[in-house]
Design brief:
The complex is a heterodimer of chains A (330) and B (348). Chain A is an alpha/beta fold. Chain A has helices at residues 3-7, 15-25, 30-39, 116-119, 141-152, 163-171, 205-219, 273-285, 319-328; strands at 154-161, 181-186, 191-196, 224-229, 237-239, 245-247, 255-258, 289-293, 309-312. In chain A, strand 7, helix 8 (273-285) and strand 8 form a beta-alpha-beta unit. The chains are: A alpha/beta (330), B alpha/beta (348).
């Protein structure tokens, strides 16, 4: 490649980079060629053992079913992949085996319902694994990063120079010890993510799980704390890996709540008092409050506390919409 | 190791030994590391190194610079780092105060040196070069983009901010450390200097070049200036896809117990071999439980600190929770009382 070409914008890593690397480095064998390709994001296996924490390979040329075996490339791959065949069920012996699970009087607390597994026939084998289908999340990958960054950014002094104050100081011939600067957005403060696992949110549970991962990716693992609650946000809890239960408490960090506000698709006039108390608690602690609501705006409660930012949780939401909405909030 | 990289010479056994180069510390090159560095050098792409804290990501830059005899420039990223910090930043406050004092406006290069104290300062005087400028054009950065007589007149000459071997370095390793600490926009801002090996100066500023003043700084072609950019991430925050797609990727796995011993032995060749093995075993044992508790597991850096403490203070590894070693475990390996209690299963 000439110097002139190097000077031009080279863009993303492409097949030319792979060809160049292979031609220049001349790997001795297939594993080394595969390792070189892997470094550039082209399929095959990683050069050594797995990292303890799986790297998030966003860019991956690996085709499903690609093989590192020599000659694998000569086999034409079917255009449409058939779903994997479920494993053949293990043949069970004829007849019914006697169950030894017998309810014992006096051992269980009175008036307690017997567990389902005692009443139903116990299944010795799990249901056959089904291929998981790809599902679009409410915040698509292409916009999630920008929407969440816009929604969760707080401001700090340190952005561009504040020309108005600067000119005023110069005109008054005041000595300047610091440059007056504008506020800039930052995710430095991290966030509390509160996920509503109430019955009304059942259709969005997988989106809640995806949202937790998306927020961690944008804000950072160390600065994101995820809480869950069932309809009542003030009772949200965070479970540590050690099994400790930490109740939510506003501490000045931005609070992002994914919830339907209990409206379940209807259009109530006002949110429940619990939500008002929750919003007030956030306001007292100085925590910016952002609510992601999967239902359209027409169904949102009319009288939600003004300082909260209500954002439609949907694939058409953009960062610009969130910023405009934030400016419009009183 | 069966791999022989083309673009640099691996030391014997893949181990850069202590003091094999001035100021060098030992570094153990795995085959994966050697291949990735080689690919990055061949394709002139930045090398994005990921892995747990303390696994040797940043040290890789020192090791490659030592192996190649190149200069090393590094910058640790914080949430306040902006593109201008890494390219060229204007000292606006100084410029403004000079303007009010009537010291702004430039001076002829052949002005009387005696008059330097009262000479009007040129715009370039207020430029602070970042590591990209130093990497792309070290001579220009040293002069802040001014002509040499002008820079001398105004005492604007700067010292090289990195490490350089004796004599003329033939290349530079540029380390951008912990990029996941940056605000989300910064990685995308870096695409221009990483992609095109050039960046624009702040509006209205010029840098002198052989062809005359320019409003940008660019690196010579790769044949004339060898440059390896190493970017590290702990994976705390996802990087933008457009950025990832421009980098050669190298995930560094945590070394196993034998590799930990090997690394520690190279750092402390006179150390007690049994004690080093015992410390490495405990580091290895702590990792999985720490990860399950969602805490940071001890890494190579913690291992070396613990071995150093044991060697220096004559501490023996012990299971006794009241021993001196248990304090090393808490202070150096886990750095967390609760985690230590959980790992050791002790109540107090």
């Amino acid at each position: 490649m000439s110097s002139l070409e190097d000077r031009d914008r080279r863009g993303e890593i492409h097949l030319g980079d792979l060809a160049r690397a292979l031609a220049e480095l001349q790997p001795r064998d297939q594993p080394h060629a595969a390792a070189i390709a892997a470094c550039l994001g082209f399929g095959l296996a990683a050069p050594s053992g797995q990292a303890s924490r799986p790297a998030r390979h966003v860019y991956d040329h690996r085709a499903p079913g690609a093989s590192a075996e020599p000659g694998a490339g000569t086999t034409p791959r079917p255009r449409v992949q058939a779903p994997p065949t479920p494993p053949r069920p293990v043949a069970l012996p004829e007849g019914t085996l006697p169950s030894r699970l017998v309810p014992r009087e006096g051992l269980s607390p009175p008036r307690e319902e017997p567990p389902d597994w005692l009443a139903e026939g116990a299944s010795a084998f799990p249901p056959p694994a089904e291929p998981s289908l790809a599902r679009a999340t409410l915040l698509p990958e292409r916009t999630a990063r920008h929407v969440l960054a816009a929604a969760l950014a707080t401001t700090r002094i340190g952005g561009d120079i504040h020309l108005g104050r600067l000119i005023a100081a110069v005109c008054r011939r005041e000595p300047l010890r610091d440059l007056p600067r504008r506020r800039e957005g930052t995710l430095q403060r991290g966030c509390h993510l509160l996920l509503d696992y109430s019955a009304g949110m059942v259709p969005f549970w997988s989106d809640l799980n995806a949202l937790a991962e998306q927020v961690r990716q944008v804000v950072g693992d160390a600065t994101t704390r995820v809480y869950s609650f069932d309809a009542h946000p003030r009772r949200a809890v965070h479970w540590t890996a050690a099994g400790d239960r930490l109740p939510w408490q506003a501490d000045g960090r931005p609070v992002l709540v994914a919830t339907d506000l209990g409206i379940q698709g209807r259009a109530p006039a006002a949110p429940s008092p619990d939500w008002e108390g929750f919003a007030a608690e956030c306001a007292r602690a100085g925590s910016p409050l952002v609510l992601l609501i999967p239902w359209p705006e027409a169904r949102w409660p009319r009288a939600f506390p003004g300082h909260a930012l209500l954002v439609h949780w949907g694939p058409r939401t953009t960062a610009g919409m969130v910023r405009r909405q934030a400016i419009a909030e009183p | 190791m069966s791999y022989t990289p083309k673009h640099f010479r691996l030391p014997e056994g893949g181990v850069l030994r202590k003091d094999s180069a001035p100021g060098a510390l030992p570094y153990v090159f795995s085959e994966a590391i050697a291949i990735a560095v080689n690919v990055a050098l061949a394709t002139h792409r930045p090398l994005l190194v990921s892995g747990d804290p303390g696994c040797g990501k940043s040290r890789l830059a020192d090791a490659v610079a030592a192996l190649k005899g190149w200069g090393l420039l590094s910058k640790t990223i914080t949430s306040r780092t902006r593109l201008e910090t890494l390219t060229a930043e204007v000292d606006q406050l100084r410029r403004l105060n000079d303007a009010q004092a009537g010291r702004l406006g430039g001076a002829a290069p052949d002005a009387d040196p005696q008059a330097a104290a009262t000479a009007r300062r040129p715009d370039g005087y207020y430029l602070n070069p970042g590591i990209f400028w130093w990497a792309f054009d070290p001579d220009g950065a040293r002069l802040r983009g001014l002509k040499e007589p002008e820079a001398r007149l105004h005492q604007a000459l700067l010292d090289y901010p990195g490490q350089r071997p004796e004599g003329k370095a033939t290349g530079t390793v540029l380390l951008i450390d912990e990029i996941d600490k940056a605000e989300p926009d910064l990685p995308n801002d870096l695409l221009e200097p990483l992609d095109r090996r050039r960046f624009d100066l702040p509006d209205g500023y010029l840098a002198q070049h052989d062809d005359g003043p320019r409003s940008w700084v660019e690196a010579p072609p790769p044949d004339a200036l060898r440059l390896l950019t190493i970017i590290t991430t702990n994976g705390e925050r996802e990087l933008p896809p457009a950025f990832l797609r421009r980098c050669v990727q190298l995930p560094i796995p945590n070394p196993d117990e034998d590799e930990l011993v090997k690394i520690a032995r190279h750092h402390y060749p006179e150390g007690d071999a049994d004690r080093i093995r015992a410390v490495a075993r405990i580091v290895h044992q702590f990792r999985d439980p720490a990860r399950k508790l969602q805490r940071r597991p001890p890494g190579t850096a913690e291992l070396l600190d613990a071995v150093a403490a044991c060697e220096e203070l004559g501490i023996q590894v012990s299971d006794d929770p009241a021993s001196v070693w248990s304090h090393i475990e808490r202070a150096v390996l886990t750095k967390d009382q609760d985690l230590w209690q959980a790992l050791r299963g002790t109540a107090g």
